Amino acid sequence: MSNINNHGVDMNNDVLFQELDCEKAATIQGGASAQVFTDANFSGTASNIFDYDVPLFSFNDQISSIKVFSGEWVFWSDANFSGSGLILGPGEYSNLQNLNGGVYNDVISSAKRNVQ
Tens of pLDDT along 67-86? Predict the structure, then answer.
């Protein structure tokens, strides 16, 4: 047992750390978070993005569905936050093929939190 500020704390029984999913982490941080998927209906390979600009190198031109947990994001068709941009707020976008005539399906290359 450890004594912290003269309070007995049993380090073996207390949960000191908790793993958080994207939505909970963003709520606690007050930031923005999203998750991108290589396939429609939130399947395939997934990647979490948080509160900053994201070059999606390993997901370049492969994203087919997106979950935005918090904040507003601009998903760009080209690297370095250029090309045409798709602005998405909180929600689930299960198939980019059905959004804006499918022009953003398998073309997104970078993402940036939209700060106004």
Answer: 999 989 999 999 888 999 99
Tell me the three state secondary structure of residue 59: helix
pLDDT, one tens digit per residue, over 36-74 is: 999 999 999 998 887 666 667 678 899 999 999 998 999
**Contact between 79 and 110 (Cβ < 8 Å):** yes
**Number of residues that make up the chain:** 116
Please name the amino acid found at residue 76. W
Contacts of 10 (CB under 8 A, 6+ apart): 1, 2
- The total of other beta-carbon atoms located within 10 Å of residue 28's CB is 9
Q: Does domain 17-113 have CATH number 2.60.20.10?
A: yes
pTM of the prediction? Answer: 0.71
Place of tokens 């068709």: 77
